[in-house]
Structure formats: C-alpha cells, structure tokens
Backbone:
C-alpha cells in the first residue's frame, strides 16, 4: 500500500530565511504533486514532478524529485509572509493517489 | 484539462439520513478518486471509483457506509449513509487521466454538516 510521509507538520519561519519540506513515499511513483491550501480554500496546484532529477521553480518555491530515494523536497527561499499556508505533497502510484499530512507554514516578520 | 462539476456544494443534514454527492467531468477520465478532508487535516482517500465495477475502498471505509457508483467514464456518485456528526467534513472528487496532461483536477468540494 502506498504511504506518503511529509515533514515537518508545522513550520514557523522568519521572513528572509530558507527551509525545506520533505515528502517520502513508499512505492514507485508515476507522478508527484505539490499543492498549497489557504484556510477555507481549495487546493492550488504548485508543481507536478514526473521523472528522477526533475526540478521545478516558481518564485521562491523550488521542488525536486529523487525517484530512487522516493523523496521529493519543496524548498522555500527567503520566505515572505504571503507564503504562509498549508503545503501538501501527493503521490500517484498504481492507480492510487494519496496525500501527505501537510505542512502548516507560518512566516513571521 | 478537465472541468469537474461537484454537487451539492454544501448541505446540512439530519443524523441518520443519507446524502449523495455527484461528480460530473467534462471529458472521459481513467482515474477518479473520492477524498474526505476534515478541518485542519489532510485529504484522506476514501476510495477509487472504478468504471463498471465495485469501488476500491481504503482501510477504514466500507461500502455500506460510503457506496460509490461509476456508471461511465465521466460520472460518479458518493453516498454518505446513515450519517452521524462525525461525518461532517468536506468531500472531494478528483480525476487523473492520460488525456488530461499531468495535472490532477478536483471538484469544488461538498461541505457536509451533520446535526
């Protein structure tokens, strides 16, 4: 059974600092997704990663995928308050799509 | 891409009753999933809706409580049966398909409150 582990669950950052969110999964994946969710809102798609070594960047967020290690990272560079949200990874594998527990990010001035 | 119409968007139901949620997609899709998201939590997979056959349920979810239909490649329903306040949650359908590109698409969600 596909298992997706995400950490940390909570992350409090100072503005301007860098940090990384980790997403481990248990089986060979077809795709890996990163989403952002603001309170009371729908999921917002950030990245879709397909192949080993894939790296995608959008603004202060960069996602990477290591399929051999079954690990994806979401790196936050020079955090700003607007990045405060909950971030989820999700893995599609063997006709299953499961989500990590989410990382609740708070960026403080 | 895909456009998903999920209905109803919200409902308040009496305990012991049932609610059927519909998910209509504007194109044929291979994979369709139903999730539950409780307040402050992640999305939990309830089941994979299989076209023409019984849904594949995750541990902790059973067909008698959450019957699912998928009569064709564009439509599915999830019923929440014999509801209790613990079933209060947001329910979401999601689709993934080779013809849709790499993205997964989500319905708008059904916010269910059981009183």
Residues:
């Amino acid at each position: 059974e596909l298992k997706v582990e995400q950490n940390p669950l909570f992350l409090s950052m100072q503005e301007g600092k860098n940090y990384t969110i980790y997403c481990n999964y248990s089986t060979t994946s077809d795709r890996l997704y990163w989403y952002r969710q603001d309170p009371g809102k729908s999921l917002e798609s950030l990245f879709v990663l397909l192949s080993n070594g894939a790296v995608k960047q959008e603004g202060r967020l960069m996602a990477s995928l290591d399929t051999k290690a079954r690990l994806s990272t979401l790196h936050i560079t020079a955090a700003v308050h607007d990045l405060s949200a909950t971030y989820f990874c999700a893995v599609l594998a063997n006709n299953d799509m499961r989500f990590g527990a989410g990382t609740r990010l708070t960026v403080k001035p | 891409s895909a456009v998903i119409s999920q209905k109803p968007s919200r409902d308040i139901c009496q305990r012991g009753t049932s609610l059927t949620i519909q998910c209509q997609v504007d194109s044929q899709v291979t994979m369709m999933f139903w999730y539950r998201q409780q307040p402050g939590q992640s999305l939990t997979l309830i089941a994979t809706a299989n076209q023409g056959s019984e849904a594949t349920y995750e541990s902790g979810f059973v067909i008698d409580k959450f019957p699912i239909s998928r009569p064709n490649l564009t439509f599915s329903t999830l019923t929440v049966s014999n509801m209790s306040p613990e079933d209060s949650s947001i329910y979401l359908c999601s689709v993934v398909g080779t013809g849709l590109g790499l993205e997964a698409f989500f319905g708008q969600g059904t916010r269910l409150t059981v009183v």
Q: What stands out?
A: Chain B has a mean pLDDT of 94. Chain B touches chain A at residues 31, 33, 35, 41-45, 48, 94, 96, 102-104, 106, 108-109 (CB under 8 Å). DSSP finds no helices and eleven strands in chain B. The radius of gyration of chain B is 13 Å.
